[in-house]
Design brief:
The protein is mainly α. Helix content is about 30%, strand content about 0%. The chain has helices spanning about 1-15, 25-35.
Amino acid sequence: MKNLLFSLLLTFGLLGFTTNNVITPDVQIAKKSTETVECKWAQCSATAKSTGKRCKHCVSEKGDTYCWQHD
């Protein structure tokens, strides 16, 4: 009985060290492109060339597509 309990504890303890949330590069790119912030009108549409991340600034007026830094 002690051996069975020890085996179960060892098995479930080792399962905690396994990683099943491996992110592939395709998923990482998708996550970067969907980063959004809450804005009154819209979020800036500019994307950084080096990182591929979208600008997190908000546009100033309704109908604008870029913030004041990328206009």
